[in-house]
Every structure is written in structure tokens, then in C-alpha cells.
Amino acid sequence: xxxxxxxxxxxxxxxxxxxxxxxxxxxxxxxxxxxxxxxxxxxxxxxxxxxxxxxxxxxxxxxxxxxxxxxxxxxxxxxxxxxxxxxxxxxxxxxxxxxxxxxxxxxxxxxxxxxxxxxxxxxxxxxxxxxxxxxxxxxxxxxxxxxxxxxxxxxxxxxxxxxxxxxxxxxxxxxxxxxxxxxxxxxxxxxxxxxxxxxxxxxxxxxxxxxxxxxxxxxxxxxxxxxxxxxxxxxxxxxxxxxxxxxxxxxxxxxxxxx
Length: 259
Known about the structure:
- By secondary structure, the chain is α+β, with helices and mostly antiparallel strands.
- The chain is about 35% helix and about 30% strand.
- It has nine helices and nine strands.
- The protein has helices spanning about 5-25, 50-55, 60-70, 90-105, 110-120, 155-160, 195-200, 235-245, 250-259; strands at about 30-40, 40-50, 80-85, 125-135, 140-150, 160-170, 175-185, 205-215, 215-225.
- A five-stranded mixed β-sheet has the order 1-2-3-9-8.
- A hairpin with a 4-residue loop joins strand 6 and strand 7.
- Helix 4 runs antiparallel to helix 5 (about 110-120).
- It is globular.
- The relative contact order is 0.14.
């Protein structure tokens, strides 16, 4: 097999693997996976919002996941490490999944869009753009694009600062696509910077690394210190957000008041 075919096959297998992880550990707030080959096996770094859900009770979840990666996806001796995401609101993958869950539960698409936009900006983003397309209202497909803050569209800054992800959700009206682009302030490198402003920069948060051995399976857990979150899973996050979302006024409600 030629080198080109090998590259295509590897990329296709990685795509299938990431699609599986997105669905299998959805409740853990899966963002992305970093896969690298080492002399002793394959290292898989999972970035999630709830590491405990991935590990499972007495390591049952991590054992099943390790077997699945080895048997179904052919990874040689997979070594899984679980990394906790510091700011879920600045992860396009997490916010795409949350918005898709809201739409699946019957929330109006514009209300879900405005809420997601608000959450991302309050999380410290420099800018955000949400594009939602598909069967939004009637039989014809349509799309809406909502933007807040400063979001570079092209050039070097757009490549460095902006991260994006796409999710699809099936509703009663039909298939809807969600695309979220987020510009992060910490990735922005200004051409000129004052010394005082540079000294006043916040120190990076310390992370706590734990290595747990569960029945001959070593799991590395990276947790962010000082992070407080009452919800135990992504499902609880969605339920809490739906209650808060009821107070959010959309453009349609403002138009109705003006009539």
C-alpha cells in the first residue's frame, strides 16, 4: 500500500475514532482527543469537562474504553490520560454539543443560539460567531449567523486565535447544523505591549496531576485547581441552563412587545 493510501486510511480511522468518542463520552463533556504513537504503544489524551465520568465506578469506564480502542480501532496498547478542560465555555466542541442538546430537547433555535452566545462571551472570549443552518422554521432550509465581540476572519491572527467546531442534530423539523467559531484572548499576541501591562498578567493556574492504577490499567488525570462546578455531568448542565434560559428574551419576544 502506498504512503498516500496509508495517510488517508489513518485519517479516516482517526475521524471514526473521534466520532465514537464524541458519542460515547458525551455526558463527560468531550472536547477533543490527542493521539500519538510511542515505542510502548499509543497514547490517547482525552480532554473532557468531567474526568470522573470517563473513569467510571472503580475504573469500569476506562477499562471498557481501553478494550474498545484496542479491539475495534486497532490501537496498539492504548494508554489513556484524562485532562480536565479549564474553561468549557471557550471550547467550540463542548459548546456545540451543549447547543445541540438544547435543540434536541425542544428549545427554540434562536433562544439556544442567544444563550450560547452569552455564555461564551461571559466565559472570557474575545469574540464568537455562531452559524445555524437547516430546517429552522419551515420546509425550506435557511441559515442565521450571529456574532459578538471581535473575531478575526482571515490572516495569521485568524489561524492562531480562532478555534471552531461543527455539530449536527436531528430535530422534528429536520437536520440542523451548528458551527461555532471562538476567538480566545490568551492566544492573541499584540505587536506592541506595555511593560506594566505585561507584569500584571494573571499567572497560569496550577494543575494537579494524579496517576491512578486500576486493575493493571494506569490512568493519568490532570485536574485544574480552584475550579468550582456544582453539576456532575453535562446532562445536569443542560437542565440547569434550560431553567436560566427561560428568563432570556429573544428578538421575537421584543418584536411582539413593539406591535
